Amino acid sequence: MNGFEGELKKRILGIVPHVVIANQKPKVSNNTGVENTSLENVGNWQSLRNKLIAQPHILQATPFLETEALIQSPKDLQGILLQGIMPKFEQQNIINKHIIAGDFSHLSTVPYSIVLGQSLAQKLNVSLSDKVRIMLPNKAVYTPMGRLPVQRAFTIVGIFNVGSQMDDAMVYVHSQYGAKLLKQKGDGINQLRLYLDDAFNATRVVEHLIAKKVVNEEQYQLTTWNESQGAFFSAVKMEKNMMWLMLSLIVAVAAFNIVSALVMVVIDKQGEIGILQTLGMDRSGIIKIFITQGMVNGLWGVMLGSILGVLLTLKLNALMSLLGVSLLGAGYVSQQLPMQLVLSDVVTIVISALIMSFAATLYPAYRASTTQPAEVLRNE
After folding, report:
1. Is the pTM of this model over 0.70?
2. Distance CA 224, CA 204 (A)
3. Alpha carbon separation from 89 to 21, 62, 368 (Å, rounded)
4. Is-contact 159 101, C-beta < 8 A?
5. Which residues pair with 61 in a beta bridge?
6. Which tens digits make up the pLDDT trace of 178-236?
């Protein structure tokens, strides 16, 4: 579950901005005959970016513009999220690291070029150097032929494959040409996105930026990834908690085995217990004997289980590959299960198992201490 959560965090939150900073008031219309509902450009975003990068936990701050659009090929038409970026600030972008065809930097050298995901390219049946048409259904220009949506042909210069749901919903263009498509002046930058060292600290980072007045809350609107992807990760967290519950039940069953085994020992060894009591051993001594016996069994079980569990976790993909087993299906033989071994989780499991083992010894030890020597040894 840690590996699954980590992969989602890397693949989805590597694309989705952790924090987005935008102007509070959007434009409604202008006098050029073009409807415009986009956010106002962020004025002097360069100085704001420099301030943000200097703050703790912020790894990168990149400018971009964003709008909903339609992408059309000769085969299909699909809704997308269009982002206009500056490639020079996106060298460490996860998209740049997962380009499988073309080059991300061509956005700067090829006019009206576009980079899209592999799954989207397959749906549209397009490849490198093909033309696609980007249309903005929420923006229109009035022509002698009537009201038409703003549109423009773009050339595909790159295809990426991150392996997430964003592959068929996100496309990238240079902000310069994105601004021209949106009929905006300048570079068209209307938002800044922040990438953090830990995406789950987004809320605390926003609170810090507001408290330190790095960002004027009255002028800018700050939103985190929780608003768009929070429900999805909450579901993952719930699944992780259910896994903890299942693991606890399994350990509880093992602890019950210790209880039943010790109860049988108590019944079988009543004569020896009675002899020890007649020799002067008090109830606390009897309790200590059975607690020690139970804890030795529990300690050996925890040690062996932990060692085997860690080894299995580290070598599971290699073992499944050796046996030719694929849990993801026949079409995903080359993919491996994501593994992330967290030491704190291992320690928590070990301590919890030892506590359950100790609790399992209490009832049999108490029952042994209540043995009456006279009754047990009456027929000896």
Report:
1. no
2. 10
3. 16, 6, 72
4. yes
5. 194
6. 888 888 877 778 788 888 888 778 888 888 888 888 887 777 888 888 777 777 777 77
